């Protein structure tokens, strides 16, 4: 890490860290005998670890590279042909990653072949872009027909122009990104994103199919002769000449910006100036309808889809029309639609129901499954429920970052003490959260459930609030605390 800091013109940080390196290293007795200090010790032998491919639709669906061809035969829903291959983005786009991919590209170039499918490269930063342009890796990738994109948040979150027309058609894209949930990359649930490391993606882009195993299979060169790719040579983690800073797009703010007025066209759908959230009124939340009971994997992409919606990301109200569009309704199995329990109308988009409740001054609650909010730390997934009148999210368990984001926006985040309590919530229930004035770290919160048949029951909910985080709720948001 010190070498990296020096290579990126931050030597003073390296020197500071090295003064305290004894605080950053494992205690000698722990390093010598870890099993005496840890409940579980995981041993990974990199020499035995085979490259893997994961997906589609979840990073959890993993298999070694040598199993992919067989799985393609066993699962008719998978598509062998790769429609696009993409490497880079904020993940797996370091100088070292790009150097290994460039090594594979140079081998292909030496045999006179290029990528068999559209192949796109997103440098991870302006610094990486400038450095691989200087040192030749970008040219190596371009020589096999790669298109170098802007070093920005691009195809990983759905911002790219796809070649061909994948609408409604099952197709495979191969990426080195870290998210591959349905509809994330291009707005199409039928697109299957398989994830691999950058050098594996580059190798498979040359073949154009998932079933190709570069460890055992051959390619055909321009001369008609078969050849095998060699594993990339060890690549440096930092360049020999340090990193090129590239061009900066940073402008110093004025010393006094208090007289600057921000003006936005009133009919803009791209930008909206936000007002601070209103503080809590000190009253309990009572008789709240359940806007959504989400079933199964509910990612931040399910809560707040990206793709084509990103054009509205600066206009929260317009963007929030997509709220819960990808969430599965536990009562019907439908995605993005539920029942307005006030009007009785069914099959209505969740954002529309939320807006109707809000117009009537009705707070609402969301019930979630396990690991609710996994995936990207997408703040819109907390902002939209706050904007449209949500009060609380009660789940079997949270993904950590999303739980924090909900808290920061002044929403209450609770968990069931018994995961089976999730099954007790019915579509027409009304929820009351009482005793909120007395909330304290480690103290359960009372949840009263009024069923439509006149019966009721009470649950005690858990939470992970620290004392300081209660101020975020009371003041309306964490940002309000700073403003105060």
TrEMBL record:
One MF term in the entry's GO annotations: aconitate hydratase activity
SUPFAM superfamilies: Aconitase iron-sulfur domain, LeuD/IlvD-like
Example GO BP: tricarboxylic acid cycle
Protein's UniProt keywords contain Iron-sulfur: yes
Top-level lineage group: Eukaryota
Residue ranges occupied by any Aconitase/3-isopropylmalate dehydratase large subunit alpha/beta/alpha domain in the UniProt entry: 1-208
Protein name: Aconitate hydratase, mitochondrial
Pfam families for the chain: Aconitase, Aconitase_C
